Amino acid sequence: MTLDQAALADMLEMVGNDEAFVGDIVDTYLADAPAQLTGMELALEAADLETLGRHAHTLKGNSLSVGATTLAEIARGLETRSRAGNAADARAEIAAAAAEFDRVTRALEDARARGWRS
Amino acid sequence: MTSPVRDPLPDEAASVGTAGVHAPHAGAGHVLVVDDSRMNRMTLVRLLQRLGHETTEAVDGRAALDVLAAGTPVDLVLLDLVMPELDGFATLATMKADPRLAAIPVIVVSGLDDLDGIVRCIEMGAVDYLPRPIKPTLLQARVEATLADKRLRDDNTRLLATVERQRTELARFLSPQVAELVSTPDGEALLAGHRREVTVVFADLRGFTAFCESRDPEEIVLVLREYHAAVGRRVTEFGATLEHFAGDGVHLFFNDPVAQTDHRLRSLRMTVALRDDVARLQDRWASRGVHLGFGVGVSVGQATAGRIGFEGRYAYAVVGAMVNLAARLSAEAATGQILVTDELYRDLSDRVEAERIDGLRLKGISHAVTAWNVVSLVGEESEVAPGAAAGR
Tell me, what's the ipTM? Predict the structure, then answer.
């Protein structure tokens, strides 16, 4: 699932329906995820799998928080395999993550327009 | 409060490290949020500030340790595990190894897929963990429970430090045993008054009053200082309770408030040792032209012990007929004599070499009294020949 609307609706409810709060968190997510994607690419080029795994870890956690389930899954795979020293499919997986992030971005903008409600 | 955040967004910068939108309340604390994910930090900081807590952010373990080293009064650390520079494990290990930081509680924040990491941190001394994604109610419960626990521990530490300071201060004025009483649960009952068998010792210098009238104050103070040092050393060594120190007069007792099953023999060991000490001092004083004698009285029996005096000026004291008896024997003792009661001598007759003195007429006692002058203790080497001391 590109965007689990329930995750954002839950977050909104938990912060007392403070739409601006959710908006700020989502903005931060959208602003920082590209750096994590770029960081993974650079780490792969440098064959630095530890750094690759760390960026994947952050992307995974942040994606889960906003309900980007599919992107979180891709990141989880990247994290697990790079931690295990396996970078065989990493380039394709990073590309898949970047493509998924574009979809997540559009889905989040749609969700914002609905006031984060499913 | 500044915080080591990389590239904060303009709108975020304003909220960083402030007391939050709500006024701090009694349960509020200062929370250090350590996470390399800006989004995570922001989520936690916003939620904590809504709860009225003060926050500081750190982008990794190294930055967190810098914040702590700068002396920021942090009450709680929320610690991410996977971070560049210094990860959560290394940060936790460093904190726990540093006595100044070890007491600051740490809650680990991690995804539940890293259960092994969470368990490792708990083993390393983290107090709790928070699963990601963060649930505000859970965050509130864990943070507030941890802060309440820390406040309790801080209060306790402060209280103990105060008690220790008071005890140390009291011990300078009171006998250590009595100072100890004041800060123990049983102490109040003992202070309130109780009956117990005690051995009481009175000792003083002979000719001291005349000496004081004829000498410079400096010389008098020097002699007293040497004498008090000798008495103080033996009081501590033998665990005597010092009731009273007045000029050259010393009033001690044994077996209260601390029980001493050997209090009778112990009192004689102490007085014999003290007589030897004073004999050496007498040699030193004699070379300065000062001639002072030393006499001791010892009695044993039931007495009432406790807090005696009036509001504002109390002493821990023993009272009873046997206390008077020891004082009278001390007054009666010739220089170098340790006069003990018949009862005390009979109890220790196989341990004591003593001379019988009959027909003593003591002030306040209607009948003639038999006392014994302790020459030495059997089987214990005197450091100075008793004859030498007695002859002075």
Answer: 0.85
